Amino acid sequence: MAIKFEQVNYLYPSFDGSNFSALENIDLEISEKGEFITLIGETGSGKSTLVQHMNALLRPATGSVTIYGIKIQKNTNKNKKIKLNPLRQKVGLVFQFPEYQLFEETVLKDIIFGPKNFGVKEDVAIERAKEVIKLVGLTEEYLERSPFNLSGGEKKRVSIAGILAMEPDILVLDEPTSGLDPKGRDALLELFTEIHKKLDKTVIIITHDMNTVYKYATRVLVMHDSELVFDGNASELFKSENIVKWNLDLPDIIEITNQLEKKLDISFNTKPHNVDELFKLMKGVL
Amino acid sequence: MKNIIVGQYVPGKSFLYKMDPRSKILALGILMVSAFVFKDITHIIYMLFGVLLILKIGGIPIMRIARGLRPIMILLLFTFSFQVMFIKTGDVVLETVLTLTYINLGLMVLIILGWYFTRTYIKSRFLFLIFVILGILTMLSLFTPGITISSSNFVVYEDGLLGASFIMVRLIIIVTLSTILTLTTKPTDLNLGLEKILRPLNIVKINSEEIALIISIALRYIPTLLDEANKIMLAQASRGVDFSEGKIKDKVMQIISLLVPMFIISFKRSDDLANAMEARSFIPGNPRSRIHILAWENRDTIVIIFCIVVLISTIAVRVFL
Fold first, then answer.
1. Cβ contacts of B83 within 8 Å, gap of 6 or more
2. Residue scoring higher pLDDT (B258 or B284)
3. Which domain holds residue A179?
4. Cα dihedral: B246, B250, B253, B259 (round 10)
5. Per-residue model confidence as pLDDT tens digits over A143-167
6. Which residue, A212, A229, A192, A179, is CA-closest to A27?
7. DSSP symbols for B103-137
8. What angle is formed at CA B115 by the lines to CA B112 and CA B119, rounded to 5 degrees?
9. pLDDT value of residue B128
10. Which tens digit of pLDDT belongs to each residue from B121-149?
11. φ and ψ at residue B221, rounded to 5 degrees
């Protein structure tokens, strides 16, 4: 197990002395290889807090998170002997807003900033930067531009490239496709599936898009009111009655299938994953 | 960051909360002037007790204020030691020779090393530091075997000690008073009060409303920017920036990686804010109506009269005693 959560609670302190509980009794295991996990749930349900525990940015109030054999507890940081920094190379976390991390004069310098912090030689890092900039769908010309003169979508890609260049074992992305156009969104999601399939790495994505969940995820985690309420595969999730309670909705293709079944008074044995499958099912019935 | 207490409102119910912000600002001004009028250590200690009494009646825990004083501790310590060292009038309180020998130099180094390695385990580090410094000074004056490297006279005069305590107490009073104001007054009220009090400046073409607006926006954005700074730190930590350690060269890079996004985000925020204000038809200098109207009540008048009495009596004390 690469990451293991055991009875994790996390509290955000507020000024009047009371605490807001952001995570409650989270038990979770994430393996190093081969998972494509989507993390969903309404805003404020604790998704971002959860992923910030995955690379030891936050420490649990009670319980423990074990990342690559290093146990993180409430007072882990007090003990300087445990180096948390290497964990952040292993678990690469891309934040939701690229503005929080871009700061260098050129895109190139910004991308190699992460690898250099983890002791990668500059020329190696530059080679990596040239690779990843193409992976995220930009060209090498972008490397010489200033990160602040880019559009929102381009900034997002550069920030993702900055993490990819660190070559993490597990890639965690907080809403990577927000603010992107449909084409860019699909391209990025394809990139993540490629990383997942070709390099057999675990990818964890926070998203609000049920189509993404249904199309790509091998495993779905649902957060609701600071608790992890579902951990399983997507088909199971969308059969569940709790969808409404958790403020989620159905992917378009399932919505359409349900409507068809209702209107035509038929029922399919399986739920289709895409239009072709639906077409086949329809043919079978007609 | 939780220690930043100056400029932070904490809800409560005492009379300090019910007072009109204008009267509170005026009272603060008058009491501060009184604190500067006093010349004698005993009088200013009486005033300190008065301030503690205000805290007691106002239901503000003294510990809270004490925590707020922590950031200015260093300043207090500096003023105290400079006063003690450089005022050379009055009776001699303590005269001793500080002698540095090879043996106690070695001991001193040992003590400093001991302090350096144990300080992370001690809860009140500041007291520990003071304790260590006093300990070293005592050792230098009393324990002096071996060959002398250098020695110097260390004399403490009564006036130095009194003057130092006097200035320290005065600083504490001023900071406490202003902390009371910001603790018990919502930033919006404070701002409104300031605006009304600065109104007379309109005669000399200084727009008090604009000044008040600038202050209120600045205050409003302190927590927001702290929050942003925290997020940036997390984002950069994810890219391997270790804010807790590193060489000087790395430290510079760390700070740049924090400051540049901070600047960009603040500029973006102010731009957004300007647009949002304009979208709600804010035009600088145009008259605006208000939701909150300040109401001056009897208790405000009483407090102001009381403060004026305090001021007059301090002046009387200064002139006649």
1. B160, B163, B164, B167
2. B258
3. 3-250
4. 30
5. 999 998 888 888 988 999 999 999 9
6. A229
7. HHHHHHHHHHHHHHHHGGG-SSHHHHHHHHHHHHH
8. 150
9. 82
10. 777 777 788 888 888 888 888 877 777 77
11. -90, -5
What is the per-residue pLDDT for A80?
64
Residues on A contacting B at a C-beta cutoff of 8 Å: 13, 15-16, 52, 55, 57, 77, 80, 85, 88-89, 92-95, 97, 99-104, 113-114, 117-118, 148, 162-163, 166
Active-site residue, selected from the candidate residues A35, A154, A167, A175: A175
User: B264–A99: do the CB atoms touch at under 8 Å?
Assistant: yes
Domain of A185, CATH number, reads 3.40.50.300
For tokens 């385990």, the residue is B121
Contacts of residue B279, defined as CB under 8 A and 6 or more positions apart, other chains included, come to: none
Position A50 in a domain: yes
Contacts of B159 (CB under 8 A, 6+ apart): B87, B89, B90
Chain B residues contacting A via beta carbons under 8 Å: 2, 8, 10-11, 228, 231-232, 234-242, 244-245, 256-257, 260-261, 264-265, 268
**Is A153 inside a domain boundary?**
yes
Domain count, chain A: 1
Contact yes or no for B264 and A114 at CB 8 A? no
Query: Which residue of chain A has the CA closest to B266?
Result: A99
For B162-212, the pLDDT digits (tens) are 888 888 899 889 988 988 888 888 877 888 888 888 888 888 888 888 888
At residue A109, what is the residue type?
A: K
| A150 domain residue, yes or no | yes
Identify the band that residue B18 occupies on the pLDDT scale cut at 50, 70 and 90. confident
* CB contact set of B191 (below 8 Å; sequence gap of 6+): B212, B213, B215, B216, B219
CA distance B104 to B139: 8
Looking at residues A94-121, what average pLDDT do you find? 90
Whole-number Cα distances in Å, B227 to A32, A151, A168, B1, B238: 32, 24, 27, 10, 17
**DSSP H or E run through A270:** none
A with B: how many residue pairs have Cβ under 8 Å apart? Answer: 69
Is residue A257 assigned to a domain?
no
Q: Residue A118's closest chain B neighbor by CA?
A: B240
Q: Residue for token digits 């319980």?
A: A63
CA distance B132 to chain A (A): 23
User: For A117, which of B232, B241, B268 is closest by C-beta distance?
Assistant: B241
Cβ pair B10, B64 in contact under 8 A: yes
